[in-house]
Amino acid sequence: MDAEEKELEKHLKSLTDAIKKTYGTTRSLVWRSFLSGLMSGLGATIGVAVVLALIAYLIRHFGGLPVVGSWLSELGRILPAKR
Which domain holds residue 42? Predict the structure, then answer.
């Protein structure tokens, strides 16, 4: 082996060790991925809730949407009649 091959082998071993250290066992990788997905979903849910609450607050603050209000009242009048 020449010096270049030894250097390449050294870097490959370093990379292999870093991958083993990062991922560890399959069980820890699966657990970490599960928690990451869970937190991502939770964060998205909280984010959507905050945005929708802000939109509802702004609509209420500016007097509502007359078109939607009349549509909902008409829907409420029609639905009980269908039963």
Answer: 3-82
Q: Is the pTM of this model over 0.90?
A: no
Spell out the per-residue pLDDT of the chain, length 83, in tens: 688 888 999 999 999 988 888 887 888 888 989 999 999 999 999 999 999 999 988 888 777 777 777 777 788 888 876 65
Domains in the chain: how many in total? Answer: 1
Provide the b/e sequence for 7-21 (b: ≥16 CB within 10 Å): eeeeeeeeeeeeeee
